[in-house]
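Q: Structure tokens for this one, please.
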Amino acid sequence: RWERYKINQDSLTPRIYWSFAVANGNVYSITQTDAGGSFMIETRVLDASQNFQKFKKISVQSTTALETPRLMSFAVHPSTGNLFILKQRITGTNSTEVHILGAPKYQSFTGQYGTALHEINDFGTWLFFVDSKNDLYCIKRSITGSSKTEIHALSATSQYQKKIINFTTTAFGDTSDPKVWAFAFDSESRDLYGIKRSYTGSKSTEIHRLSAASSYTAFTLQTGTALHETGGDQIWSFAIYKQDLWCIRQAGTGTNTTEIHVLAARYGYKRFTIQSGTALPETPPNLSCRRPPGWCSHPNATFSYVDCDQDGFIDPVCTDLNGGFWVLQSTENCQERVGTSGNTGCKSACTRTQGWCNHPGSTFSLADCDGDNTADPVCTDTKGNFWTLESTKGCATRFGGACRSCSRPPNWCFHSGQDFILEDCDGDGQDDPICSDLNGVLWARQSTKGCTTLHTTGGFPGGCSRPKGWCNHAGSTFTFRDVDRDGKLDPVCTDTAGLFVTRLSSKNCNDQYIPVIPSRLRKAHMETNVSSVRN
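A: Here is the predicted structure, written as tokens:
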């Protein structure tokens, strides 16, 4: 019987989460820091009058009373600068709560309310904005009864107990994929701006504006912009101020700072009026939960990374041949959740049934095979067979198919020292068969290339390669994932001792160790003789 290790939060690397807003022409950076149970919110205001090269205000507020920072969202009042903290789960009122920190010091709450909106379990599907009257607008992007994006609004005068807009269906469909859609809100007109980041007809980041006057059923603007498609770069934030689109680039910048790029409405969003570095260093996305020492090391266990809570951060997942399922979700502060059949913690994912995918030559994976944003158990083998347990098909075993992508041919990726992986490597939202070996050779069958095999000794275009002998020590697991959310796959190595190392394209492909490992130990820890076989 596997004796699971209790996770020591103090041993985890502090996780920092960034949010951005624009008010009074200034840029607000809101930082949530979780350092092993000590939660802090830091508000930094980049001063427009100083060309964003100085901070107008820096304020730190302990959030011990609120706890669980990844269950919070933020909005900033467009004129007062008051900070609205939306706590979505584990609340004392059993509802989504509003906690307002008063500007400019942000040291005391000017209001704390339960609301008419229920607690939110599907984190990442909701967005929140505040208008000039302090009314709260709640955007539900997916999992709606109408299969469309919905909008709700709660009035400030009722202390957020009454809805002034209730379950209004918009002209937007499901907008749950953050690589395709982002949103911004005009606090004066209350128009909703859909920012389409990829798969656009104009080959640029597009603006699709829904008017409040039409009850969000009619578009008053649909246009391309001077900004390239940004769906491959999960390092952008967007805001609307005086109808201009403010684009915040958080990492991979030429100035090595967080940058501001403003597209002017008066030029039809075809011209930038501000392009500037700032006093704020680069603010890259977090690196998610770490695999604790001893976690998922029991016999017949399979370790993988899946974004179970759909917040954009990969989560450690463990399954085994007894049907066990465990996950460490970033929205739950990396506390272990033990799943059972039909309630795995990976939304509505199917549970791996006892003994499933245990025959010689088989490889178990998790991938979204039916396109419902839920990871499905997948089994492939060296004979080219393919089985799935799909959530939209009642979790019954299905034989054949290729998980909406390319098949794994017979005898493909079966040699000693090769790792078979299912992951989207061409950016079309469909998982592709990938094979990586200890000599640094890479093969992939991409759905956008007619399933022809890519063969290279480097990494994917724009990404980092796997060096010879990298991630070959006992107890290690190798995979490719987009860790820094820049749209490029990064090599990742974890092991049963708690190691997490990745080679990030946004960090010049240098090894990034989490936690830090002394340099004298790194080579021995990561590499063995290339001809040896991984345990």
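A few notes: The helical segments are 519-526. The CA atoms of residues 370 and 390 lie 7 Å apart.
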